[in-house]
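Next comes this protein.

***
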Amino acid sequence: MPNYDSNEVQPAIRSQQIAVIGSGYVGLTLSASLALLGHDVECTDKSHERVEQLAHGHVPITEEGLTEVVEQMLATGHLRFGRDNQGAARRAEFVFLCLPTPMGGDGWADLSFVKQVAEEIGPHLRPGATVITKSTVPVGTGQMVRQALGRDDVHVVSNPEFLAEGTALRDCLRPDRIVVGAASEAVARTVADLYGPFAHSRSILTDVASAEIIKYASNAYLAVRLTFVNSMAQLCELAGADVRAVTRGMGADRRIGPGFLQPGPGWGGSCFPKDTEALVQTAAGFGCDLALVQTAIATNAQHIDWVAGKVAAILDGHVHGKRIAMWGLTFKAGTDDQRQSPALAIARRLTEMGAVVHAYDPTVPAGTLHGIEVHSSSFSACKEADALVIATEWPEFAAADLTALAAVMGDRVIMDARNMIDPVAAVNAGFRYSGIGVPVQLRREEGVAV
């Protein structure tokens, strides 16, 4: 795991007293990063258990390098944890709101946590303090925060996060861009400066409303892009084409680029599902119909069903009574986050079709999860299985010994929803192989599609 030493991190020009309210994924990563940059950071959370954990250096999420940095910053005294939102706000020049904004039943973002905390800390802020919304929120939230604070002598700023789980710490310290929306450029610059000299060339300073929309627009675009490539994978299968060649050809165009052109089982996680729905609802509130995003949401759900159907197809049309092994339960590799995981959605569909699902994921302990038997090793999950579904792109799956795997399975079938396994190697090991948008049948001796 990396230690982010002075060779990688340039400290902020001026150390500031910062409060971060909320110690979830975003709040914890932000707190560790700002402390590493030389600021004095107090991170608060209402959960006594969580604060006690963090105060002793126990990080409850899987994220590369985060535990090490938290431990380092606790030791230096630059980072501390507590439960007193009001006291932290009173002591700080800058207060970051890193609070949950879950999707409500109607698709709108639930801003109740943001509003509640703003009302709580408002009377305790220093005159001239800056309150920064880091949570993903719909346009107009800045105005709501200002009203909830009840203060005319403080600044309200939008500074959305763009962290990818699995690389969150590096994304915070070396971001593609730092977006800051404020009423004036001078105020926006003070927030950008918190991220150190690196921020100067990466900052996009704008108004609050634009900053709020940038985050939603970015996530919605990526979700649409993934939906498109998954749809192309389905077309490739029908047309006898290879989606891997198609995406290479697309990505070579500098106007398109190769990022987010890898087909898979569908998108999920803590951001894309709720952010796309919230953007649709926000737009509708302004009388704007985002039909493209709505179609992407519906198409993604259909794609997950299609992947489950491919498992049945490769097993002669049904999975009832079959033992299905699944590698991967998190929504992506590098994290223990299972929220809106397409892997779990596929597992549920298979169980609804009568299959018995046995799974392995390096971040999920052995036991029973949503009716799925979770094993402590990848091979034990595959013992006497009728088929293996690779649902999450953990690197260890690509390195699996296929010959040894074939020896433990009952039927040698692989449905590779991440296109991680070399189809030729799978066929040569005796497997029937099915990927996403790749030729299903291969001649063993030539390793070519037929």
Q: What stands out?
A: The chain has two domains: 17-206, 208-450. DSSP finds 17 helices and 15 strands in the chain. The mean pLDDT is 93.
